[in-house]
């Protein structure tokens, strides 16, 4: 059994039901879907996503990447993405493990090259060819779920190995920027955290810049270079994605969803929602609900539970 097949068997064993579940190993989550899913938004935190079976597409605006068992996904900053499983079936479910990146551990492994100029054109969302050594290390991390008494001692060691292999891979430069406390990437990361914590409130760029330790003009320039959007556009994506989730998953009305995420004007909310999702709120949700109902009906007809849906009580936009 090669590494990716072993990983698939491990995820199957420890994630027998569809959905995303945390584990006893810190920062490790397992994801399973038995059917393809519709595109649903979610904020992906800085993480490694390694698929053992199936495939998935994630999009940041017009930029999209597809990853599968031959390519893993690395997200370097918290990003509001839209993701959907492309390949999955009851007989061959989508199986993925997600490891959030521990920046403190990453910093311990990193010796920052202070003589090298910083680059803002490094990808914050990218896929890379699968590495057998990385897959092997991830397998050993997941395997610890069957050895709970060993997790406290061995999981940190295996996690450090995974971080080391990422640092020595093609994206090492980006990870070193993440770990360097005074890097532009690290400061933008602090700005992102400030925006996420108060995304329902009016955006005050001076406050966000102060949290990042940058001037307003520097923040604007570097934030856009790293995330492909301005701070205001980033906040808008967070607001609209949360509003869409509220309407789809919780049945919230468009008016209440817009108000809940910080819009005072219903017309502005509808206008910006249509610009982002291609249809007014009610029409977009009806369209998505029809697609989800069709998926559910198909699953029931096949004698399987509907998996990975974003209907009330479920969510298909989970990272991974």
UniProtKB/TrEMBL annotation:
Keywords: Transcription, Transcription regulation. The keyword Isomerase does not apply. It comes from the Bacteria. Signal peptide: none annotated. Residues 189-287 form the HTH araC/xylS-type domain. The keyword Secreted does not apply. Residues 299-310 have a biased composition (Low complexity). Residues 299-320 are annotated as: Disordered. Gene3D superfamilies: Homeodomain-like. This is AraC family transcriptional regulator. It comes from Roseomonas alba. The lineage of its organism: Bacteria, Pseudomonadati, Pseudomonadota, Alphaproteobacteria, Acetobacterales.
């Amino acid at each position: 059994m090669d590494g990716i097949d072993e990983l698939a068997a491990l995820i199957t064993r420890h994630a027998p039901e569809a959905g995303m579940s945390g584990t006893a190993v810190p920062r490790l989550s397992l994801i399973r879907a038995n059917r393809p899913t519709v595109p649903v938004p979610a904020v992906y935190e800085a993480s490694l996503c390694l698929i053992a079976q199936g495939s998935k597409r994630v999009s940041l605006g017009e930029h999209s990447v597809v990853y599968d068992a031959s390519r893993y996904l690395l997200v370097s900053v918290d990003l509001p993405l839209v993701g959907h499983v492309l390949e999955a079936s009851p007989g061959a479910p989508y199986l993925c493990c997600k490891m959030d990146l521990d920046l403190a551990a990453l910093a311990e492994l990193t010796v920052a090259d202070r003589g090298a100029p910083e680059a803002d054109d490094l990808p914050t969302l990218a896929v890379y060819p699968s590495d057998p050594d990385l897959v092997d290390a991830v397998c050993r991390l997941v395997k610890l779920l069957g050895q709970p008494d060993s997790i406290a001692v061995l999981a940190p060691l295996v996690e450090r190995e995974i971080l080391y292999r990422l640092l020595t891979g093609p994206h090492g430069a980006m990870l070193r920027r993440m770990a360097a406390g005074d890097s532009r990437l690290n400061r933008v990361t602090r700005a992102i955290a400030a925006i996420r914590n108060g995304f329902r409130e009016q955006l005050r760029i001076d406050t966000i810049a102060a949290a990042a330790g940058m001037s307003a003009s520097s923040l604007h320039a570097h934030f856009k270079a790293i995330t492909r959007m301005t701070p205001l556009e980033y906040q808008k994506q967070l607001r609209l994605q949360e509003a869409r989730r509220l309407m789809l998953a919780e049945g919230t009305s468009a008016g209440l969803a817009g108000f809940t995420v910080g819009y005072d004007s219903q017309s502005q909310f509808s206008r910006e929602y249509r610009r982002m999702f291609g249809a007014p709120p009610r029409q977009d949700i009806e369209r998505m609900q029809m697609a989800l109902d069709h998926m559910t009906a198909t699953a029931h007809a096949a004698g399987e539970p509907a998996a990975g849906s974003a209907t009330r009580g479920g969510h298909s936009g989970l990272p991974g």
